[in-house]
Amino acid sequence: MNNIANEMYSLMERLFPICRSITGDGVRETLNILKEYIPIDIKEVPSGAKVFDWEIPDEWNIKDAYVKDKDGNRVIDFKCSNLHVVNYSIPYDGELTLSELKKHLYTLPNQPDLIPYVTSYYEKRWGFCLSHKEYESLKDMTYEVKVDSTLEAGSLTYADLVIPGESEKEILLSTYICHPSMANNELSGPVVATYLAKYFLEKGDNYYTYRFVFAPETIGVITYLSNHLDDLKKHVIAGYVITCIGDNGPFSYLKSRQGGTLVDRATMHVLKNSEKEFKLYNYLSRGSDERQYCAPGVDLPVGSLMRTKYYEYPEYHTSGDNLDIIEPNELLRSFEMYKKCVNAIEMNRIYKTIVKGEPQLGKRGLYPTIGTKTANLNVNSMMNLLAYCDGQNDLLWIAEKINEPVSILMPIIKVLIEEGLLKEVEQ
Amino acid sequence: MNNIANEMYSLMERLFPICRSITGDGVRETLNILKEYIPIDIKEVPSGAKVFDWEIPDEWNIKDAYVKDKDGNRVIDFKCSNLHVVNYSIPYDGELTLSELKKHLYTLPNQPDLIPYVTSYYEKRWGFCLSHKEYESLKDMTYEVKVDSTLEAGSLTYADLVIPGESEKEILLSTYICHPSMANNELSGPVVATYLAKYFLEKGDNYYTYRFVFAPETIGVITYLSNHLDDLKKHVIAGYVITCIGDNGPFSYLKSRQGGTLVDRATMHVLKNSEKEFKLYNYLSRGSDERQYCAPGVDLPVGSLMRTKYYEYPEYHTSGDNLDIIEPNELLRSFEMYKKCVNAIEMNRIYKTIVKGEPQLGKRGLYPTIGTKTANLNVNSMMNLLAYCDGQNDLLWIAEKINEPVSILMPIIKVLIEEGLLKEVEQ
Amino acid sequence: MNNIANEMYSLMERLFPICRSITGDGVRETLNILKEYIPIDIKEVPSGAKVFDWEIPDEWNIKDAYVKDKDGNRVIDFKCSNLHVVNYSIPYDGELTLSELKKHLYTLPNQPDLIPYVTSYYEKRWGFCLSHKEYESLKDMTYEVKVDSTLEAGSLTYADLVIPGESEKEILLSTYICHPSMANNELSGPVVATYLAKYFLEKGDNYYTYRFVFAPETIGVITYLSNHLDDLKKHVIAGYVITCIGDNGPFSYLKSRQGGTLVDRATMHVLKNSEKEFKLYNYLSRGSDERQYCAPGVDLPVGSLMRTKYYEYPEYHTSGDNLDIIEPNELLRSFEMYKKCVNAIEMNRIYKTIVKGEPQLGKRGLYPTIGTKTANLNVNSMMNLLAYCDGQNDLLWIAEKINEPVSILMPIIKVLIEEGLLKEVEQ
Question: Has this prediction a pTM greater than 0.90?
């Protein structure tokens, strides 16, 4: 299993250097790498296309960008870190005094060693980001400034993968691929999503259909929803936005807008039964693509299982969010936790006892045959499960009621079905 | 605005000396004064008329009443305070020894300086009320006793005012006008109700229809309900009994019988968001006309917003409840709080976003255009509001969910409607 | 009333020596004695009959059983206590060394003075039970062992009694009669049930129909349900399993599977309003025939009111559970508590006021006629009751809402019905 930990980390290393944005070749390169792992379907939507309240913007690409001092030294250099350029900067070529230049510079005075991550998708600007230390060491002179970018009609790129199951009902797993070189937010998301897709592909006998979405945050998911809304509304019974899932913090879960939906119940049940410490956020703390999935008119039941949530770790949206804060084993723990939660949904059916009254477990070898004061303790879980399988309540409800993790009940259910004592109720 | 404070206090000064009861000229005189301020419709219902389980009693009027000592001094004198006579006392003229007289005297031994307010509407009695100090100073002699009252066929008087709004649905504001010279209970009620009626008349563009009722407590409201029940059941969506609203105590709210109705939700929302300290009573603590409005078979959703509740302040139902415990500015605070609560009901519609997914606020100038870690905090309220306007839940529900006062959300709603992002849902 | 206490204790003394089991003459003898008290209907169901998932076992009877030492002394003797034999032991006659014998001996090392109660209904075994002290004093020798029992085709015996009421809806009272000489579990159950049946027979004017069931635990109730399920599902609105009701511990109540049903609400209301101390168990702590009554597919609303619950008192299922731990007055307290709870169900109808608004209590002599600050306190219960009788909520709901025991409200309801102020609503 450690293989998967290292494989996920290696994939992240491959993806890390690419300069992604909400459009452009960085997205394409990223998706083409993922396609080596799982058979995703890559789509392009042209600039100017209407998607709900939005419009696909011009496509942005960048070759180089720098600020040179009078000696020709690159004092700010895109080639050192793609965070140095404000994402979506328009082309620029000129000479500026320091005071003119400073109007285009962004820093984090409270984190003076880190480069901030800044974007300007919908207002035409150019700018550079740098550490506050570097900023303060800039001398008063004329600088040569160049942003070698293009912002032109092109397209927005996204991908999906649908793994059909026995049921047409779907579990949605969505992640985004639009941030430049940052590791926890965002690369942990696409990396874990890719390996979850591999797992469900290889496992094969899935009850539900699994839909994986890899799209630029916000505009990409709006585009995806705009193209697939009817389908999603008809089929999706639960979904996750996978993000910030690679650090070593305790798990956190951001509930869907409605709260109390299947994804909320399953995730909280699993966390409660497996983690000493975890954190719950309600929808007021939302910040990623659940904003689109749960929006009025879309109304999908989508939550987000994370490690340390965006905004909550100091390296968030800075150059500090790099491979140093990711450990292969933590990626693995996150992968396993997503599997547990999704499996809790996968297993969550309604069961009904076939016999009336208590079944005679003894004649089936399921019960100790000598009745004493203490002998029946070890069949408690089985008896409690049978006592609540009335065809009304689903497995998660019963698990909460009888204080047993779903993971312990599932093998018991298999035995009881084999023994002809239980059946699944059509929903 | 202080004008209103002083105007309300002046009106109370005019009304204070009148000897009101559940019938008679005191009620008529009071309503005729109010008619100088607002165009109320005054009605008379003849003695003997059946109203639900009750019957309109004979009309009571009184010119004078006294107890004279052997020297002809009035030791108890109606002209000094109309509280000195048991309200609804039958006529009497005779001479009595002190011990005979005492059978007809009422005092408050625990509040020896105050005259109690005592009534005997449904059993024919006469009596006098006096301070316990005066009572103890009465000497053993023969007294001349006179109650110059009449109790004869006549009528019961009440008034109402309906201010039509855009909707036929009504908000009911009811107060009573049957107590003699007492200020907080009851004159604060009719005075604040009168100025609320003026406000809604002058404001003009009301969404709901407003119905003001001025009627003697209990029998008057039973009479009103008996004559208007079908209309009220069809239209009233929320209502208040306005009483005990002139002292300087913290606000208190007595919930409707059903609890959790619109008036309960709106009032508790407003109090929670504007007052450091306030008190909630459930319907078991009821004591005024909500007893009729909420009664089984009537079933109107009516609560009561007060300052210090009847029974809870020491001057209640005594001569201590006079103009000294009323301050113009406290009347104004009460008036403003009623406006806030009623406006929270007035504004409480169901809204739905028009676009699917999050709208693009940027292109409408509603969103900062440079995305950094902290820039989006100031649009939180707007985003949260949009995130919950799903056409299912009303504004008060959303306000509670996102922890924002309705008063802050209302201007945002106006902007969003103008921008074509939100619409009201027909209910 | 003390008569009933002593009568119940005497009946228990008569029943105590009988060696009962789930089938056989012990059950028959017990039911025939009960038939001297109440007109129960005794039924036989032949061995081999299918009942739900089960089959009626062969009938077990026993004349004698012993272990004799080499001197012919009975060191273990059924005639001393019928607990000495594993219940349902197959016949045996032979000679065994101590170590061979020990494989068939059962003791309680932690309660070395007590004989355990052990059964082996569904696996063919024989065995003896004895105190651990006796066990340890057994010497190494050859013993003569005899179990003079029969296990042959026969029948299972149960009884019921239906006392018709005004309504076809039924209250079920079930107890079991399959344990040998033990007093609290089980004889307190059939004894109290018998006297409850006598009470409802003699009382006569019952609103609900009362159904008493006397059946062997588990298999007997499964048999009963198998023969009467449609009837029970159609009629039973509430039920109790009566067991462990003779000791002097505080009352305890085990809730039905669904919880919040009529029997749960009534019992908890009564306990809360009459007992300083009581204990609640949810259905996960179940252990008696509610396991069958509440099972999925049966789904009857049945709880269990006990004193100290099975498993919770040290003498449970041992020879210590004998007449010494039963007191006549405690049996009486239990009998009275069952009456209170059942009467709370019997009285629990939906009432509606006939008049609209508050009725005029004064003209009916139900209200003090002089209105002062404090005079109306003593009619609070009546007014609160009237304020909530809206034809929507049943009496138990109202009692909880207004914080009054049902027992105090019932006489008020009678008066209000007589006065024409209240009527019962058809459900």
Answer: yes
